[in-house]
Structure formats: C-alpha cells, structure tokens
C-alpha cells in the first residue's frame, strides 16, 4: 500500500490508519462516519474524492467474504459516493434555483445516523445502569457445599490400561449358510451334560461358541423343551440380564423321552 | 393492617414489575391512587432507613430492586443471571424506534443504511418492540413501537426518561440550519467545485 499524501492540512499520515475491519461497522453509514470523524473532517465539507477512495479501499479486501446482502449495502453507498463526486465535477449552471450541494442529502443522512448513535449511547448507559439493580430471586438461595478438592492421580499408563480393556470392535458378521447343521437333540444332550456337571449354566454357553443363529434357536428350543419336562428352570433377574438355566428336579427323565419329543430340526 | 404493608408484601413477593392496578387487586379497599401513595411512603421509608433496596418504577410497573451500589456484591454469585446485552444492531434499531415511534421497517432501514428485517424479528421475539399499527403507504406497512419490556430492560419510567432529541450532542434541527448556512456561504464564494 502506497503512502498517500492526500491527507491534507500538513499531516503526512499514510492512509493505513484508516484501514479498518468492516466487521466493526454496522453498515456503510457507520463506516463513512468513522472515516470522517477519525480524520477530523468537517462534515459539511466532505472531501468526497478522498473519502470515496478510503471507503472503496476498505471494501476491497473484505467484500468477497461478505454475505451478499451486506455487500450490497456497502456497494450502494460506494455508488452514491461516486455519483456525488461526479455531480461535483460537473459545471454548475448559473440558475439560482440550482439544487443544493449534491453532498447535502448524504450529510443529512450521516447527521441523522450520528444523532441516533448518541441515542444508542444513552440506551447503553441505561442498560448498564439497569444491570446494576437486582430483583428478587436473582441470587441462589444457598451456595452448593464445597466439595473437597480431589487430586487427579492418573498417569498415561493408567489411562492406556483402561483403553486396552475396551474390547476390539467385533469383526463384521459374515452372512453365510450354516456350515454345520445342528439339531435340538444335540442341544438337549449338551444341556443335560452340562447340567449334570454344574448346578447352573448360562444360556449363552449353549450357542455362543458356534456363533450362529441356528445354534441359538436350537439352544432356545432345547431349553424350553427341558423346562417343559421340568428338567431345568430358567431364570432371568431382569430384562436383558443373562439367562441362567438351573438343573431341575427331573434332570434324568425315563429313557426314550429325548428321542420322542425333541425330534424337530433347527430352524 | 395498613395499606403500606399490603403493598410492601405484594411487591416483596413479586419477581416482576407490578402495576398499581395489579397491586390494588390484593384488597378491596385498595385503588390505584392509594397504592401509588403507599409506594411513595414506602420509598421515603426505605430512603430514610438506608435500605439496600428501593421500589423502582419500570414503565407502568413497580418492582423492588437492590440499589446499584450493591451490585458488586451480588455479582460475585455465579448464579446471578445477567440481562443479555443487546447487540449494536439491536440498540441502533431500538434507538430509532424509540424516537420515531411509530415507525415502519423501510424508514428504519433508511436511517441505518442497512436491512433491519432480521433484527426487527429478534426484537419482536424479545417483546422489546411490538406492532402498533399500520402505515398509510403502499401495502399498509406495519408500524413498530417500543414496549413495556423495553422500558423494563432499560430501567425507564417512560420514554420521557430518555433525553429529548434537542438535548443530544448531535441536534438535527440546529445542524440542519448550520448546514444550510454553510451551503449559503459556499454558494456565495462559488467555492463548490474546489471542495473535492
């Protein structure tokens, strides 16, 4: 950016001090007013060329990043400034009823805007003052009891050991036909064997090692079948808790019952 | 039971400003005038006994609020909810509406030089402004005015608490005249072209 000698009245400041971020400004009037006031320019005698240049220069960098509506507002003002500049350059006809200074309307708007900025300051003051009064119910009845500070004693190794305990995500389930058929009878005899050795068996153990739906279905049918024969009891503490199969009163039924009543195949 | 005590109890228990009429509903013998008189008595009492609170008038309503000098103590409580500070755009728009009441959106935008529709929607949502009528122009535009909530937010009795337009640093009328005088001088000097 080239230093500019346009800032008159003996000052040789470059134009940079007036490089400002548009975010700070509510709109084009705000920016324009800032340019005028920060350079002690007489608002009734605005050097339009200089102000227009500064205005456009401020726009240049940020215009593209602006929402289109906001950009339009700034561009409209830029166009107005250029129009005023053009009108000032045109020779003035000598008629006495020639309209007023082309800048007059802009000056009126700027003054009106500045006038309302004063009101804004009044409102800000009132808002701040009001914020110093508190009404009922604004303070918590009683502060929460302070908890004794607890030192966080955790090393990276501790953390990693917890992470290590998180199981690996299961590999995606492969959908394939059961490689091995399973019958309810097989599950019934498995159950009988297990319950012969242990008082209770987790339902999971009947099919988890095989991991297929067929096994689960067969195991369920086998468990229900044996429960019907009162060879076992099924217990579950609450929904979704693990299901336990407990050996029943008649674990060893008369021979032959198995083959008669558990002849259905899986699925 | 004295009127003052009834009024005091009502104001004490309320978390929002109450109008004199609302307070008068507390008892058959009360009317708005006696309530207002009782409030004045209470105010003098609080003043005389240097209470930390006072009865403040916000719009039409009265509310018991702490005196401002105690704010630093109350602000230490994290639980004190601060009234939201309004954005510059909201303040600008409110300033225009408060002084040009009732005013349409287009006129607001002319003063601000930017669109006002989204900020107006926010102010309507917060009940700081309300639609107070319709203008004469094309499509009978909605006219907006400030509300009781506006007065409460800024702690004002009424709009006359705000400085009159000619008390503000930038006085439009006078500057208009100055501008015209300036223009006349410029004309006289035929200096218009050299201003650039």
Topology:
The complex is a heterodimer of chains A (267) and B (196).
Chain A: H1 28-38, H2 48-62, H3 68-89, H4 104-130, H5 156-165, H6 184-197, E1 200-202, H7 213-228, E2 232-235, E3 244-247, H8 257-261
Antiparallel strand pairs in A: 1-3, 2-3
Chain B: H1 3-13, E1 18-19, H2 20-24, H3 32-48, E2 53-58, E3 61-66, H4 71-74, H5 88-100, E4 103-104, H6 105-112, H7 117-125, E5 129-134, E6 142-146, H8 148-154, H9 172-189
Helix pairs in contact in B: 1-3, 5-7
What would you say this structure looks like, in words?
The complex is a heterodimer of chains A (267) and B (196). In chain A, a hairpin with an 8-residue loop joins β2 and β3 (244-247). Chain A has a 3-stranded antiparallel beta sheet with strand order 1-3-2. Chain A has helices at 28-38, 48-62, 68-89, 104-130, 156-165, 184-197, 213-228, 257-261, and strands spanning 200-202, 232-235, 244-247. The two termini of chain A are 82 Å apart. The relative contact order of chain A is 0.07. In chain A, α1 packs across α4, α2 (48-62) packs antiparallel against α3 (68-89) and α6 (184-197) packs across α7 (213-228). Among the domains of chain A are: 16-91 and 100-124, no CATH class; 184-261, Arc Repressor Mutant, subunit A, CATH 1.10.10. Chain A has 267 residues and is mainly α. Chain A is built from 8 helices and 3 strands, in the order ααααααβαββα. Chain B has a 3-stranded antiparallel beta sheet, with helices on both faces. A 3-stranded antiparallel beta sheet of chain B has the order 4-6-5. Chain B folds into 3 domains: 3-74, Orthogonal Bundle (Arc Repressor Mutant, subunit A); 88-162, Orthogonal Bundle (Arc Repressor Mutant, subunit A); 170-196. Chain B is of the alpha+beta class. The radius of gyration of chain B is 23 Å and the shape is elongated. Mean pLDDT of chain B is 85; it is low at 190-196. Chain B starts with a helix and ends in a 7-residue tail after the last helix.
């Amino acid at each position: 950016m080239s230093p500019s000698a346009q800032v008159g009245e003996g000052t040789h400041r470059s134009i940079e001090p007036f490089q400002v971020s548009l975010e700070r400004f509510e709109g084009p009037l705000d920016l324009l007013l800032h340019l005028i006031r920060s350079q002690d320019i007489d608002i009734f005698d605005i050097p339009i060329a200089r102000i227009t240049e500064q205005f456009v220069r401020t726009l240049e960098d940020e215009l593209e990043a602006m929402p289109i509506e906001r950009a339009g507002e700034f561009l409209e003002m830029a166009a107005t400034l250029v129009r005023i500049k053009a009108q000032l350059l045109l020779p003035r006809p000598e008629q006495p009823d020639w309209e007023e200074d082309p800048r007059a309307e802009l000056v009126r708007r700027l003054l009106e805007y500045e006038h309302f900025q004063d009101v804004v300051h009044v409102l800000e003051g009132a808002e701040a003052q009001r914020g110093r009064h508190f009404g009922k119910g604004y303070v918590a009845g009683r502060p929460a009891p302070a908890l004794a500070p607890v030192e966080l004693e955790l090393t990276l190794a501790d953390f990693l050991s917890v992470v290590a305990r998180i199981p690996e995500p299961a590999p995606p389930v492969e959908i394939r036909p059961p490689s091995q058929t399973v019958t309810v009878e097989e599950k019934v005899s498995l159950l009988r064997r297990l319950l012969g050795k242990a008082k209770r068996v987790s339902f999971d153990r009947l099919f988890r090692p095989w991991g297929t739906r067929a096994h689960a279905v067969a195991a369920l049918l086998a468990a229900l079948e044996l429960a019907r024969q009162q060879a076992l009891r099924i217990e579950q503490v609450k929904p979704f808790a693990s299901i336990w199969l407990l050996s029943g009163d008649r674990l060893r039924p008369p021979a032959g019952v198995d083959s008669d009543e558990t002849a259905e195949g899986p699925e | 039971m004295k009127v003052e005590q009834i009024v005091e109890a009502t104001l004490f228990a309320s978390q929002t400003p109450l109008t004199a009429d609302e307070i008068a509903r507390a008892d058959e013998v009360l009317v708005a005038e006696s309530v207002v008189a009782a409030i004045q008595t209470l105010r003098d009492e609080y003043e005389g006994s240097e209470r930390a609170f006072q009865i403040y008038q916000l719009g039409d309503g009265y509310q018991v609020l702490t005196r401002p000098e105690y704010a630093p103590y109350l602000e230490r409580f994290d639980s004190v909810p601060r009234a939201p500070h309004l954005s510059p755009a909201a303040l600008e728009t409110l300033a225009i509406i408060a002084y040009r009441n009732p005013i349409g959106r287009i006129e607001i935008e002319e003063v601000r030089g930017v669109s006002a529709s989204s900020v107006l929607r926010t102010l309507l949502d917060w009940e700081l402004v309300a639609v107070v009528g319709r203008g004469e122009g094309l499509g009978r535009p909605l006219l907006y005015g400030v509300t009781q909530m506006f007065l409460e937010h800024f702690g004002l009795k009424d709009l006359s608490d705000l400085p009159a337009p000619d008390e503000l640093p930038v006085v439009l009328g006078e500057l208009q005249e100055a501008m015209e005088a300036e223009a006349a001088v410029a004309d006289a000097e035929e200096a218009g072209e050299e201003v650039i």
